[in-house]
UniProtKB/TrEMBL annotation:
GO biological processes: DNA transposition
Pfam families: HTH_Tnp_1 (PF01527)
Name of this protein: Transposase
InterPro entries noted in UniProt: Homeodomain-like_sf, Transposase_8
Taxonomic superkingdom: Bacteria
Family: Belongs to the transposase 8 family.
Gene3D superfamilies noted in UniProt: Homeodomain-like (1.10.10.60)
Natural source organism: Halomonas korlensis
Molecular functions per Gene Ontology: DNA binding; transposase activity
Amino acid sequence: MRYPAERKEAILKKMAPPMSMTIPELAEQEGITATTLYHWRKQARSAETWRDACMNAKADAVQQG
């Protein structure tokens, strides 16, 4: 199954601070296998998307705080 890029990005943001949800938690919440989520995280980290998501999440937390 293919997932829209927007959904993947939203889920990756949940893995990043400040939410820092675990993959098993997200798998249950989102109905996506943990294997898929681990793969997405690996892809994101190698593509620097992971760092961008973390930076954006921190900036959002500062603005909300």
